[in-house]
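ok new one. same drill as before - structure tokens go in, u give me an amino acid for every spot. 252 of them this time. try not to just spam alanines like last time pls lmao
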């Protein structure tokens, strides 16, 4: 812990970056950001010992808003880069994050193989069933029969089940929460970070501004660059699974 951090109590404010935030009002990313900052403060993590890695997307901007080391990587590539960061410096607390398009679309192979490797860090997936930044194309989680304004027809395929994928891949702490339930989400993130020796995966259900056809409407859109109705989500029950690595060994 740095000398400065040793002499004062660490609070949520220590993780706030003084940067304009351009997420749409009502975006669930605000809840995830607040929950992360709360979890870091609860665990009294020194900001100098924290590294937050992200993919590319609206969610990928999260490291900009956290006072810690931050690394927005490439679309779908956050897990190999965060793995490198973790292995290069085992004194760091490493948190990786990204959208569900990032993690389960272009990054799906990394998601599976990172579960196999079980390097000790936490991966938070901001789940909204769409590619938010690029106007709401269907993410692999989009449920059959749902449609955003950027889709000519309703989805004809089922969405993937991230929890089942994480179990099959070998993640040892798997949890799901609702992003705007900030206190609970913070407690889940804190537990995941404390889960020693192997990797945690947290698909977080994240509400967004929605189309008139979507089941939840959270708030008005602010950005004129993105058409209304590109983002949606459903509130799901929380899930927590904790287990030993599949082969019984643990790697760090
Ligand atoms: C290799 C590559 N392909 C495509 C893109 C364009 N792109 C940027 S963000 C994005 C999708 C983001 O969706 P998601 O990962 O779900 O994150 P969200 O914006 O919803 O947080 C895409 C396709 C890119 N930046 N790089
Ligand atoms: S487009 Fe969707 S994910 Fe992006 S900031 Fe707006 S509500 Fe959030």
């Amino acid at each position: 812990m740095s000398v400065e951090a040793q002499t004062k109590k660490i609070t949520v404010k220590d993780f706030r970056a003084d940067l304009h935030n351009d997420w749409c009002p009502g975006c669930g990313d605000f809840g995830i950001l607040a929950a992360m900052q709360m979890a870091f403060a609860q665990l009294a993590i020194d900001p100098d010992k924290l590294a937050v890695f992200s993919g590319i997307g609206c969610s990928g901007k999260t490291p900009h808003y956290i006072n810690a080391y931050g690394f927005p990587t490439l679309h779908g590539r956050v897990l190999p880069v965060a793995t490198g960061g973790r292995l290069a410096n085992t004194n760091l607390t490493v948190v990786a994050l990204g959208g569900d398009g990032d993690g389960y679309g272009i990054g799906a192979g990394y998601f599976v193989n990172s579960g196999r490797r079980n390097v000790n860090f936490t991966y938070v997936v901001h789940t909204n069933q769409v590619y938010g930044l690029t106007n709401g194309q269907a993410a692999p989680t989009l449920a059959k029969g749902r449609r955003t304004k950027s889709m000519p027809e309703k989805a004809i395929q089922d969405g993937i089940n991230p929890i089942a994928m994480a179990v099959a891949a070998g993640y040892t702490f798997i949890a799901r929460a609702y992003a705007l339930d900030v206190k609970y989400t913070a407690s889940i993130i804190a537990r995941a970070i404390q889960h020693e020796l192997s990797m945690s995966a947290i698909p977080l259900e994240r509400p967004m501004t929605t189309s008139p056809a979507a089941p939840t409407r959270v708030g008005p859109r602010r950005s004129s660059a993105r058409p209304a109705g590109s983002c949606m989500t459903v509130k799901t029950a929380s899930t927590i699974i904790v287990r030993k690595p599949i082969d019984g060994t643990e790697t760090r």
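The chain has a mean pLDDT of 84. and btw The CA atoms of residues 112 and 191 lie 22 Å apart.
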